[in-house]
Amino acid sequence: MLFSTVYTAAALFVAQAAAHGAVTSYVIDGVTYPGYTGFSPASSPKTIQRQWPDYNPTLTITDRKVMCNGGTSADLSAKVAAGGKIKALWSQWTHEQGPVMVWMYKCAGDFASCDGSGKKWFKVSLHEKN
Fold it and tell me: For the domain bounded by 20-127, which CATH number is listed?
């Protein structure tokens, strides 16, 4: 019985940890910006968001995909005033999701040179399932 309970709990944890979805647009100080909406950069409009290569979850913290999901640099940028409001709109969830954290990276220069390394990450929000 104990094995069954532990196995079920572990299976539920893995299902939640492997959950994934996508930010498909942003509202920054009342202005809406499109996010990245697909796997093919050629078919997507220019956006303020780094593109991602797939919807596969990142399973370890040492995976390079932890930084920007292994995608390419964003074409555009959006200025956010100190204290400004940022809202990320998620979609493409095809299943129950677990906790979701949204982090952003401060890139003060040319986006092509931003690789997500260093201590410029800051947490924007945390949504925990009730």
Answer: 2.70.50.70
Confirm if 20 and 99 have CB atoms less than 8 A apart.
no
3 state SS of 44: coil
pLDDT in tens, 50-91: 777 776 777 787 877 777 666 667 778 888 888 999 888 877
Indicate the pTM of the whole model. 0.62
From the number of C-beta atoms within 10 Å of its C-beta (0-12, 13-18, 19+), residue 20 rates as middle
CA distance 120 to 106: 5
In three-state secondary structure terms, 39 is coil
Domain definitions of the chain by residue range: 20-127
Query: Where does residue 35 rank: exposed (0-12), middle (13-18), buried (19+ CB within 10 A)?
Result: buried
